[in-house]
């Protein structure tokens, strides 16, 4: 099964290291539909005497069709450690004036000198 994808690649290089560089792929369409992503942020549950803040952007998904977004980020560094947050949003929730948002929730990775995890939940930013 082939799905046509369009986008562009940006090359980043360090002038001090001519032989090393990296590329970032920005998708602009998936199967002929434009793609979009959402910002998400929040504060984890308060456990083991602390909480963490987090922020990130979801992975792109096609616009105009039922969809979900994958997401992954790391929490702030608090109490000597950080946690990974990873998951998939719920389905799109339409807004009265157009656009949509997604709910997300989960638990962080286990970390810390007293191994533990935190819960998190929230809503993504609206789509344009």
- Classification by helices and strands: mainly beta
Oligomer: single chain
Q: What is the rounded Rg?
A: 18 Å
Strand order of the largest sheet: 1-2-3-6
| Strand percentage | over 45%
Helicity level: under 10%
**What spatial form do the alpha-carbon principal axes imply?**
globular
Please write the string of helix (H) and strand (E) elements.
Answer: EEEEEEEEEEEE
The DSSP helix count reads 0
Query: Could you name the ranges where pLDDT drops below 50 across 5 or more consecutive residues?
Result: none
Please describe the biggest sheet, giving its number of strands, its sense, and whether it closes into a barrel. Answer: 4 strands, antiparallel
Integer average pLDDT: 86
**β-strand number:** 12
How far apart the termini lie comes to 30 Å
Could you explain the architecture of this structure?
There is one protein chain. This protein has 128 residues and is mostly beta strands. The chain has a domain at 35-123. The protein has strands spanning 5-14, 17-30, 33-36, 39-43, 53-57, 61-62, 70-74, 84-88, 93-94, 100-101, 103-107, 119-123. The strands form five sheets. Strands 1-2-3-6 form a four-stranded antiparallel beta sheet, with no helix packed on it. A hairpin with a 2-residue loop joins strand 1 and strand 2. It starts with a strand and ends in a 5-residue tail after the last strand. The model has no long low-confidence stretch (mean pLDDT 86).
């Amino acid at each position: 099964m082939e799905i046509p994808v369009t986008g562009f690649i940006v090359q980043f290089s360090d002038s001090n290291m001519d032989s090393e560089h990296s590329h970032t792929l920005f998708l602009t369409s998936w199967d002929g539909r434009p793609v979009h992503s959402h910002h998400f942020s929040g504060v984890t549950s308060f456990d083991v005497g602390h909480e963490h803040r987090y922020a990130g952007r979801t992975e792109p998904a096609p616009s105009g069709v039922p969809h979900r977004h994958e997401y992954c980020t790391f929490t702030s560094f608090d109490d000597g450690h950080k946690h990974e947050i990873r998951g998939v949003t719920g389905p799109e929730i339409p807004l009265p004036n157009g656009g949509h948002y997604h709910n997300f929730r989960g638990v962080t990775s286990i970390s810390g000198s007293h191994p533990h995890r935190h819960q998190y939940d929230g809503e993504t930013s609206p789509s344009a």
